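Justification of computing resources. Each target in the renewal requires a structure prediction run like the one illustrated here; the chain below, 472 residues long, is used simply to show the kind of job we budget for.
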Amino acid sequence: MKEINRRDFLKTLGASAAAATGATSLVGCMPNQDGSVNAVDPAGTETSPIATDKMEYRSFEGLGDDKVSLLGYGCMRWPMIPNPNGEGEIVDQEQVNALVDYSLEHGVNYFDTAPVYCQGQSEAATGIALKRHPRDSYFIATKMSNMSNTTLEAGIEMYHNSLKNLQVEYIDYLLMHIVGMGGFENFSRRFIENGLMDYLVKEREAGRIRHLGWSFHGDVKVFDYLLQLQDEGKYHWDFVQIQMNYIDWKLASGMNIPAEYLYGELAKRNIPVVIMEPLLGGRLSKLPDHIVARLKQREPEKSAASWAFRYAGTMPQILSVLSGMTYMEHLQDNLRSFAPFKPLTEDEISFLYETAGLINQYQTVPCNDCKYCMPCPYGVDIPAILLHYNKCVNQGNIAENMQDPEYRRMRQVYLVGYDRSVPKLRQADHCIGCKTCNPHCPQSIDIPRQLQKINDYVESLKQDTLGKVNEA
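Resulting structure tokens:
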């Protein structure tokens, strides 16, 4: 366990917000004599070894003897493959097993899932992979995702299904899911009026839930209310999960509440913090080339993503930093940030805040690809539309006017990429503005408004093309 000077670090966090990242692509592995692995990039250049015994662990008073890996595995984005019966997709269990095995071999022991992840398949897939290992070699975190049916009976059934799907007799870390979304009325209906919160507390007392907490999205009044309950001695929270990265620290790009406030209130009470979205759904690993080049000047061998992970991990109150690693190259790259872990210096934090100002010049939509907005009743592929737009913004392929010398190229890149990324019947022009999606968005995006803006842009590009065709 490495000691981190909390006071010195917090003194550096009073400035403005920040962000940065970008992932390196890695393929193949070669074993070393000491058991570590060297990843090889496509150009054949060997990168730093991936240590098997250097993972950073965190422990807190109140969590017993738990030593939790600073890198946590977010199981919301397990790899998917087409269902053999032709109906939708299923989790690629073979790949999940390989990712879990590799994670455990390299020190990752915290796995975060939920009943609603991966179209409802994440818990079962995670349970299958982890069941092959000793129960005391990992910690399972899952959630009470009772958004659609808020009765006590439905909540209890969901909880027991989680135990069954995960193939465990107890859950290490259980969270009340997306607390704050929909405001206090929604929270009260889900957890207070039906007695479900009290039921979960009793399950903790019985030992079937080892640690009880909540994940926060949305209304800060709910956040403050739950902490007030602890202050008054009515409830005790073992941990809390919040969205935090060096963009959201001050600016709160999607959450509306700066992470500085959320983290500060939890740190005051010595409540361990689990971090979600350190890369903002991957957006901070897909930065414009000149931003990536700026980061590479400081750390040529590190990916841009590693800056965001080190930022989150430097915080002394952090229990674990979650990353949804779909592919082995993501896992390998992230392991280098935490095994071993090197906290950021004050100078490096200032550098990140300066970089943030440059990043914020690019107005991407704060979509994290969580897919909570799906399915759309009219078949619109909301995440794919927003992600393609963000990709083009980051790559400098959004044309502002026809006089731009790169206009023709940018128009072609956008339209061709749009048709390849989103089937025509699922594109933004099929949105009718019903706003069914808005209440489900953890980032508080006005989705129909963004889809309309994107569709207007697409139509302007198409009309230009049609005009040239008509002239011919």
